[in-house]
């Protein structure tokens, strides 16, 4: 069992923390784990599964309460420094010194790791090549985009060749292109340096690249094995359902995911719905549930198995979906049904010489879910801020709920609910106090405030007396949504609402969104999770300030080429790269 | 020897990093270099306990030559502006209307009683401002005493009034409060650097998450500490030189002790002050709280309880005990003595040992806050 080639041996590891209620809870509960040398191992699991705690125990930064941790032959409790001398670790938020330049950050970590001068030049050169950052060596790290920061973090982590590399959710908040680059760097290093790597991730396509996968939930190891072994657990349970023509796939998806006793998981996929059934659910009941939708088996994926494992685990919290019909806007925006709720024409925004948004036009109809996608720094947030009236446009026309943002900003704003990327909540106020504050800020009267606060708390299943600080991430996000909807706005803006949120909470979140849209709320959303684009009626892809394409998910995928087989992730990358290549060609020709 | 080379390299890298960060943070650099100059000008020129041109009502009820001579000293004093009034009632009105801060009254029987050797001059002070009142009392007595003395010298035999008090103030002969405040100012400046600058350093790394990445390198806790200390020791040394130069050339405060001893003692106190800031920073891990706490825990007591302004012997004993825990209390008197009194080796040895002990304890405690643990 303690084979000499094992890089990491964890036995009976338990680690307690003080919970928000003051009682201790087990972040890790008797975890056993062995990692073979020279392999790529993934840790997957929802928020609070214990992934980060496990990583920190491996680095010797956290002491186990029970059990033993041996890394590279050293005991993590007795000889943490011996481990730290030989590993490289990239925490979820890598500590770049924002006031130091790219080069200075790299040099600092090379010095701290004692990389000899002759090796260093090659190594840093290679890292700059792989991350495509050689042009930016003199730029302060604080002035890099999110994706570039993450790549620089990885480069700093890898300035020397460690015996073991630990990566804690390296791709959170990173766009698909940067994410692909990140994994290309890893693949290159694994091939050349014979690295052992442990990576925690929320992306199943990343876990699928690994040799071994550990599924964690509630501090315990639910399952382990190769991706193929794990995937097989969902064998025979996976299907594709096609809704009758004219019905949006998300209506069918909502119906399926609302029947957890028969359906484990359902997601929209290219106009169809991919679902996983409960093993014991009888065929007849499934047929009744699916109604007039055609369905046929499909081959299983790792994500299906992951959802199966989580749903079968008793300790998984089941966030109930939000039935949002009651939240339907009471205030009519005054628009006739066929007029667009949002109208954007030739929108431009410049900051000095820099054009953040270039000549952008699109419409959003009432009750539509409109997705705004793009790499880090594409201009999504700038577009968003202009739509919300937080930032004036340099030129162009912007109409929200029939009000021109140049002349009727206040009226347009009252028709908007806005959920910022970092939920703007008051951490030391309770759920009720937060909601009452936002109701007041939107000018609701006393009785109206009471009615609305009670309504949104009931809809989002929020406990009125809890401090916002003590809420788990998924519930913080619900509270932020509730606050954004407190004045029954006909339009809801969501800026990366699911960043850093696990698959289970994301499904519950999207269930609320589709429900809101059905009730007539217009939703505009940005996201880094490309599969979430499938929930949208239409999506727009932005890059370097330009609108590359606007259309339904299917149209976008068709435009990307490659037949109907590619997923949204690949389609996104293809479209952005085609546009960039065309741009480069245009410049070369000129 | 390999380990030594590694340590040196890591230390160099860390010091370079801290220095760069310090130099790039303009606002903090301004605090570190400009604030001492501002404080020097403020305390040196603006704040003073000395009374100058204080309006004093003079009532001569005795119109004799002798009475006039006695009060002539008041007219010549740079500290006093004599306002001559005819009646006591006028003088009282001036005081009530804040036109005058004191009354000097020469009673009608002054010259008669002077002959008998029991002459008295009445001095009434406005006690609502005790500091000014105390200072004025001295000036008025001095001015009148000088005049009496002159008179006695010129006409021997007429001034038989028994013994005459001859005042002499040691160390600060002019009893100039600038002499008293400026050396203390050096203590305040050094304390502020610790409270405002180093108190942010470790907390900032916790807040930005950089410490977690730094921990998982071969770096040792004491190396992080040393690297954070050194650049600010340099800033502090510049401030010390600034303060000493200002004291010497701007305010003409005598420096009677050895300049090198003063500098070294100040550097020792600087190290203690920086370490206190770093310790608070490492303990609370939050920049805002760290800066609040260090202002309360180091700067406030350094101004109030170190003997900068207020005499410690007047403190009630619980406050006195607290004052003895403040590092500045063990440096303030030493520095004042070194400035105005000269080298006092016993005092120097005792206070230096106390400061070294503080430094050692804070150094170890701060290194512990940097133990590579997140729990």
UniProtKB/TrEMBL annotation, chain A:
Coiled coil: none annotated. This is ABC transporter ATP-binding protein. Gene3D superfamilies: P-loop containing nucleotide triphosphate hydrolases. The keyword Repeat does not apply. It comes from Novosphingobium colocasiae. It holds the Pfam family ABC_tran. GO terms for molecular function: ATP binding; ATP hydrolysis activity. Residues 8-243, 342-569 form the ABC transporter domain. Residues 318-338 are annotated as: Disordered. InterPro entries: AAA+_ATPase, ABC_transporter-like_ATP-bd, ABC_transporter-like_CS, P-loop_NTPase. CDD domains: ABC_DR_subfamily_A. PROSITE patterns: ABC_TRANSPORTER_1 (PS00211), ABC_TRANSPORTER_2 (PS50893). Keywords: ATP-binding, Nucleotide-binding.
TrEMBL record, chain B:
PROSITE patterns: ABC_TM2. Pfam families: ABC2_membrane_3. The keyword Transport applies. It comes from Novosphingobium colocasiae. The keyword Transmembrane applies. Residues 133-373 form the ABC transmembrane type-2 domain. InterPro entries: ABC-2_transporter_component, ABC2_TM, ABC2_TM_bact-type. Belongs to the ABC-2 integral membrane protein family. The chain crosses the membrane at residues 29-47, 180-203, 229-251, 257-281, 293-310, 353-371. This is Membrane protein. PANTHER family: MEMBRANE COMPONENT OF ABC TRANSPORTER YHHJ-RELATED, MULTIDRUG ABC TRANSPORTER PERMEASE YBHS-RELATED. It is a multi-pass membrane protein. Its main location: membrane. GO terms for cellular component: plasma membrane. It is found in: Cell membrane. One of its GO terms (molecular function) is ABC-type transporter activity. Keywords: Cell membrane, Membrane, Transmembrane, Transmembrane helix, Transport.
